[in-house]
Amino acid sequence: MDAGNDKVVLLCDARLRLPLAAMLSRTVSLLPVVAYDEIILGTEVQPLETISVQRSESTETTEQELVTVMK
Predict the structure, then answer these.
(1) Cα(first)–Cα(last) distance of the chain, in Å?
(2) Do 13 and 36 contact (CB within 8 A), yes or no?
(3) Do 11 and 65 form a contact (C-beta atoms < 8 A)?
(4) pLDDT of residue 28
(5) In which residue ranges of the chain is pLDDT below 70?
């Protein structure tokens, strides 16, 4: 958003959407958090960044994407 991109959203798994939105609302209140399954088929998205989280109990990585929605 600081780089001048409008319509930026954080795209994530549906199970993470509500807790992530609640956490980010305190610091980045203008960043919408959207679940993958909430994107309408045919909506063009452009990935800007990928956020990876290392789990402490294994080497498995989960990824969430920060995307801009193009309409």
Answers:
(1) 17
(2) yes
(3) yes
(4) 86
(5) 1-5, 53-71
